[in-house]
Amino acid sequence: MLNYQQICNQVIELAKIAGDFIRKEKGKINSENIETKSLHSYVTYVDKNAEKIIVDGLKKILPEAGFITEEETETVKSDKYNWIVDPLDGTTNFIHGLEPFSVSIALEEAGKIVIGVVYEVGKDECFYAYKDSPAYLNGKEIKVSTNKTLADSLIATGFPYYDFEQNKAILKSLEYFMEHTQGIRRFGSAATDLAYVACGRFDAFYEYSLNVWDVAAGAFIVEKAGGKVSDFNKGNNYLYGREMVAANNYVYNEFADIVKNLLG
Predict the structure, then answer these.
(1) pTM (predicted TM-score)
(2) Which of 45, 177, 190, 226 reaches 20 to 30 Å from 25, CA-CA?
(3) CB atoms within 10 A of CB 71
(4) pLDDT value at position 33?
C-alpha cells in the first residue's frame, strides 16, 4: 500500500521546483517561442521543459506509474497508477505576463484520484490533498465556503478555446449568473479556479471543453475540502467528460440544476 502523505509531500516539492523554473522564465516569452497546438491553444518551451522536470521527478517517486500529460512528454499509461500532469495551466496568461498560472499534478489509482497538488506560481500558494486527508493550503487546512445562496455567491468559469458549439448557452448562463449572483470571474486557469473553490474564495465553478489534466488535481482538492463536483448533468463523468461543476454543499444543488438546464 502506498504512503500517500509521503508521496504527496514529494510531489509538492517537485511542483515547487517546476514553479521556480516557470517563475524565472516569466517575461522572456516572445512570438518566436510560441507554438499553436490548435485554435487559440498555445504551448511554449516553458510548458515543455516544466513538464520534463515534473515527469523526470515523478518517475523517481513512483517508477511503476504511467502518465497522462498535456504536452505528451510521456504517454505510456499503466493499468493501476497514472500521473496526470498539466505543467502550466494558464499558458495564455503566462504568455501575456498575467496571473494566475499553475502547476497541476494528480495521481490516479485504479481509476480514482488519490493525490492532488495545485501550485499557483504567482502567489506561491500550494493547494493539496491525499487519500483520507483534508485539503490544505501551504500547510493549513482549508474548507469550501459556507455561503448558503447563489445571491451571496461569487462564480468562476472559463471559456473554450475552439469548441464553440455551446456559445449561445454559455452566454445565456453568463446572463443568468450576472443577474442572480455577486458576480462572475474568468481567471484563465481551471486548476486555480478549483483550488479557489476549495479554499472558499469562489463559491462555485463551471466550465466545459476541459481536459483531465486541467481538473484532476483541483477537483480532488475541492472534494477533500468538503465541496461537491459533478458533470453538467450532476453525474460522475467530470474527469474525462470535458465538463465540470464544483461548489460548496449549500449552493451545489441550485447551481448544478441551473447549469444542467442551460448546458446539460
Answers:
(1) 0.95
(2) 190
(3) 21
(4) 72
